[in-house]
Design brief:
Blueprint lengths: L4 E6 L15 E6 H7 L21 H15 L15 H17 L6 H22 L1
Antiparallel strand pairs: 1-2
């Protein structure tokens, strides 16, 4: 199967050498992958850690679960990945829980039943943990 491409129109007035461009609006056919490969990317700094597994695709559930993991760390339930210590930041934990709750309210009626269940269950769990820690 051939990749779908898109049209790239070069509207730069100067060449990479700084000379005025003679060709105005040159069109080329390029694929997303080729364009991404042509961009200059800095290599990530070597942290000395093993490369992590492939990340899941970005979706609503991943966003909510990521926020939940942040709240768990702020509640001291999971270690901070930088210090490996269980640290509490209850103000930030409450704020993160409120963000998840706001997302649930703002997206109500637009979520699948699985996404709604994830938000509901996560909020119930986080709120109970918050009460245990603060109560």
């Amino acid at each position: 199967m051939e990749e779908e491409g898109f049209k790239v129109v070069d509207k730069r007035r100067f060449t990479p050498e700084g000379e005025p461009s003679e060709i105005k609006g040159e069109e080329t056919q390029d694929s997303y992958a080729e364009t991404k490969g042509a961009e200059k990317h800095e290599e990530p700094a070597d942290t000395g850690k093993e490369p992590s597994e492939a990340l899941p695709p970005p979706d609503f559930t991943t966003l909510v679960v990521s926020l939940g993991a942040s709240a768990l760390m702020c509640l001291g339930d999971t270690p901070n990945p930088d210090s490996e210590k269980h640290e509490k930041n209850l103000k930030l934990a409450r704020h993160t829980i409120d963000i998840i709750e706001m997302l649930g309210e703002k997206t109500k009626g637009n979520l699948t039943s699985a996404e709604s269940n994830v938000i509901r269950d996560l909020l119930n769990d986080l709120k109970m943990r918050y009460v245990r820690v603060t109560g």
